[in-house]
Amino acid sequence: MNRFFDNRNVLGLIFMLPAAALLLVFLTYPLALGTWLGFTDARIGRAGHWIGLENFSMLVQDSVARLSLFNTLFYTVVASTIKFALGLWLALLLNRNLPFKSFFRAIVLLPFIVPTALSAIAFWWIYDAQFSVVSWALERMGLIHRYIDFLGDPWNARLSTIAANIWRGVPFVAICLLAGLQTIPPSLYEAAALDGATPWQRFRHVTLPLLTPIIAVVMTFSVLFTFTDFQLIYVLTRGGPLNATHLMATLSFQRAIPGGNLGEGAALATLMIPFLLAAILFSYFGLQRRKWQQGARD
Amino acid sequence: MASVHIRNVHKYFGGTHVIRGVDIDIADGEFAVLVGPSGCGKSTLLRMVAGLEEISGGEIEIGGRVVNAIPPKERDIAMVFQNYALYPHMKVRDNMAFSLLLAKRPRSEIDSRVAKAASILGLGELLDRYPRQLSGGQRQRVAMGRAIVRDPQVFLFDEPLSNLDAKLRVAMRTEIKELHQRLKTTSVYVTHDQIEAMTMADQIVVMRDGVVEQRGKPLELYDHPANLFVAGFIGSPAMNFLPAKLRRAGDRAEVELADGARVPVPRDAAGEDGLPVIFGARPEHLSLAGAESGLAAEVVVVEPTGADTQVFAKIGGTDVTAVFRERHEFRAGEPIRLAPDHERTHLFDAASGKSLRT
């Protein structure tokens, strides 16, 4: 018996069990159940029957579902692009020798550590039709004459939710890119300066190429988080007005829980998987380790 | 080609005064080595010449042009860094071509200049490799290649060999010297290794605590060190120092060691009778003497290296080293007598450390 437990493989298996059990129970099982539900007509309080692709074919013809796909793509592309640009800019600023450097770095992280639901409620007030501080300020400055209906108009609502998402997501991008910037040895910049590179050329030929591996990782995560966003939308607009801000995640919840159509909601959630997979594969193949990062002779 | 003049240069880092009034003149085509212990300011001075550090006071002139306010890229210099600072994402070829590319040189010229530099340094085979795929010595050579493709007025080397192993360091030392003899570009080379300084330099500048202790040709510094610091820093193994008093009788000058033994010193030694001095003799200028001459010493350790024999001994209570070309066998504790070569001994004022030989 003792010799059995001394075996490296047996021991390894035993140590792996808790982690494997957690993953199986909380990750694999829900994912499998969700996917399975998508192929059934389950409703709340009633176990479903296998109905094949019926949910999916219905969703493809459903204009609201198609709108939610458009919203999700628009939301993800616009928010991620701006988060990347702002995050990179912030990281470059914070990488300089500013006074109170660590203080500013801590401040930048704030939006990230505040619970999303709380910051969403703050944005709800900022975007309020009657009490919006933004409208108030703009009116006082004489720039507008009527309060902006941030969340009542479809395009305003889309852009407003994107702005809130950007505010929340920039710190993550900025701090990760800052960590990446700090791995670049200062002597490379000095060598480039002696080689005659302008600040822009130093950024273009030294910073950016050396940062690509980290950009790839950070932006993959950023895209995944944004694509699956739920909390912000649910607190701010619940998908309205006229479903203009419904993302696939919020619509799926809407259909499944308040609407009771578990099967349909699950099918919609399952439809997100191909997009997420595509994002992961893109970063895996397109931005995998460059040749120059690899060690001597491969 | 250009001369470099450093005039009364100062550098402050916050409140710390790290370079305290340095004057150095480097002639066109000269190979100057700044040497000193770590923290003496030699690298800072080099970075000031490069334009990577601001000049707090004084001026630096390269090729007849005061460069205090001129940015690095317009100074027409190239620098080899201690950690090579090769761009990891560029192939060797692109690393070397980068500065020419930025200067918008035509492609054909870039190619020919890179090819020429590569052939000088034997890098032809490696042009399509990434820095990570090279050994330390190869990277060092690429860093030099990157400097020479530009054909600058001045080369700056910041401890370029200190990341290499001992054997490679010696080989690269020769290679750099050979390169300089070939290109004849004015070079400023920083190192903490006095052997590198001695073997490579036309002019050595010994620095300590932000000031120049002495500058001159390598053998000048070896033969006539201006003070105790330079005497102890240049030469390996280091010079032996024995505390003593100067004794004068007529035109004879001698030193009297702590145990009363007397040794004659060169005539040109200045100083009055009774002056406390430090008597200096290089290990290679001590020889074995008969019973009546020389200084009584006691052997501590003997290290035969094959080419020569190093003997560590004690004279009075002071440790001394002697190097003999001949092979000797001594037991630990054995009494021997060591005679300094009088004309090649040194004498320093015990209080100021300055040389008393004129």
Portion in helices of chain A? over 70%
String of helices and strands of chain B: EEEHEEEHHHEHEHEEHHEEEEEEEEEE
* Strand segment count of chain B: 20
H/E series of chain A: HHHHHHHHHHHHH
Helix and strand content put the structural class of chain B at alpha+beta
The third-level CATH topology of the largest domain in chain B is Rossmann fold
| Overall residue-averaged pLDDT value of chain B | 90
State the largest interface. Answer: A-B, 24 and 28 residues
Helix count of chain B equals 8
* Strand fraction of chain A: under 5%
Mean pLDDT of chain A: 88
Radius of gyration of chain B: 24 Å
CATH class of chain A: Mainly Alpha
Terminal CA distance of chain A? 44 Å
Summed up, the domain count of chain A is: 1
Output the CATH homologous superfamily of chain A: MetI-like
Write the layout of secondary structure elements.
The complex is a heterodimer of chains A (298) and B (358).
Chain A: H1 2-6, H2 8-38, H3 54-61, H4 63-94, H5 101-113, H6 116-126, H7 133-140, H8 154-181, H9 186-194, H10 199-227, H11 231-236, H12 248-256, H13 262-286
Chain B: E1 4-13, E2 16-26, E3 31-35, H1 42-50, E4 57-62, E5 65-66, E6 77-80, H2 92-102, H3 107-121, H4 136-148, E7 154-158, H5 166-183, E8 186-191, H6 194-200, E9 203-208, E10 211-216, H7 218-223, H8 228-233, E11 240-249, E12 252-257, E13 262-264, E14 276-281, E15 286-288, E16 295-304, E17 309-315, E18 318-324, E19 335-340, E20 346-349
Parallel strand pairs in B: 3-8, 3-9, 6-7, 7-8
Antiparallel strand pairs in B: 1-2, 1-4, 4-5, 9-10, 11-12, 11-14, 12-13, 14-20, 15-19, 16-17, 16-19, 17-18
Helix pairs in contact in B: 2-3, 2-4, 3-4
